[in-house]
Amino acid sequence: MSQDLFPADSAATPPEDGSRRSFIKQAGGILGLALAPPLLSQAERLTAFSKTVEGVTSMTLKVNGTARTLQAEPRVSLLDALRENLDLTGTKKGCDHGQCGACTVLVDGKRINSCLTLAVMNQGKEITTIEGLAKGEELHPMQAAFLKHDGFQCGYCTPGQIMSGVACVQEGHAKTDDQTREWMSGNLCRCGAYPNIVAAVREVAGKA
Questions:
Q1: How many Å apart are CA 144 and CA 163, to the nearest integer?
Q2: Which of 1, 44, 148, 203 to pair with 57, CA 20 to 30 A apart?
């Protein structure tokens, strides 16, 4: 058989039995490429980029008002840098895919899923984690409201819920119960403490 994938007489003469399996595999591979999405997602581009970079780099992150320098691979996420390099374990790793909100932190006052951004990309920005909300022994109003309204059970999602609640109030998206539920919907609570969480956020919003 010709070594060409599609020999000139292939339409008239099917491949020999011994090479039929190879022919099907090759044709299937070409079909797969033809049907593949033409553009990579941002996450895929970042993953491909990180695989081309070797070793570690020095980076400085301003977290809770303090500049912290660490050594890490360029591909390390902000979540892992906070937890593994800076020992700020209040920010939780849940799904690691940006779907549960347990890793929510504030960057320049805006809430983000820290598992979906690279630490190196957040240099020069103001990063606030759950550890940076209280002022000494004085709790942040959102923390106090969560305690008052029993807005948690197992507590695993609570840091992310609180950080998202703080941002929700700052954004002006906690004016009604329905609005609060919609803008807090990116934070999941497997224990089902949603009514209490809404009550806590709404109380803080009422005093803002």
A1: 13
A2: 44
